[in-house]
Amino acid sequence: MSEKSKVTTVLPGKVEKIINPHPHSGEPEKAQIAVEGADHLYREIRVPNRLVDDDGRKVKLKEGAEVDVKIEADPAVTSKVASAEESNNRVNRNHPA
Q1: Which among 36, 44, 41, 32 is positioned nearest to 12, based on CA atoms?
Q2: Cβ(72)–Cβ(6) under 8 Å?
Q3: Is the pLDDT of residue 55 over 70?
Q4: What is the DSSP secondary structure assignment for residue 70, as one 8-state letter?
Q5: Tens digit of pLDDT for each residue in 8-21?
Q6: Which pLDDT band holds residue 59 (cuts at 50, 70, 90)?
Q7: How far, in Å, CA of 1 to CA of 22, rounded?
Q8: Is 33 exposed, middle or buried (0-12, 13-18, 19+ CB in 10 A)?
Q9: Phi-psi region of 4 (alpha: psi -120 to 50; beta: other; left: phi over 0)
Q10: Tens digit of each residue's pLDDT (9 = 90 or more) over 24-48
Q11: Burial of 90 (0-12, 13-18, 19+ CB in 10 A)
């Protein structure tokens, strides 16, 4: 499936800190990112601090960097959201005043 046919959303985030791995663990350095719009207890994600620039060079995020967190999915694993008007009509029919 091509990327153009995926559904997406983008949330702003900020690199809160860079986490160095324990020596000899083999773990990569990680960037802890606070995702705006996420629930308070789930707003931080930790990802390997490895990116590639337009020239193919390996780069890393710096603490304080503003980032975009992109979520994308195949349309087959999503469901449509009813419009606000349709939702209100359903609620009113189920709970008369």
Answers
A1: 36
A2: yes
A3: yes
A4: E
A5: 999 999 999 999 99
A6: very high
A7: 39
A8: buried
A9: alpha
A10: 999 999 999 999 999 999 999 999 9
A11: exposed
Domain boundaries, the chain: 3-94
Burial class (CB in 10 A: 0-12, 13-18, 19+), 31: buried
Per DSSP, helices labelled H in 1-97 are 84-94
44-48 and 30-35 strand pairing:
antiparallel
Quick: pLDDT tens for 61-91: 999 999 999 999 999 999 998 887 555 555 5
Per-residue tokens: 55 = 């020239």
Residues 6 or more apart whose Cβ sits within 8 Å of residue 92: none
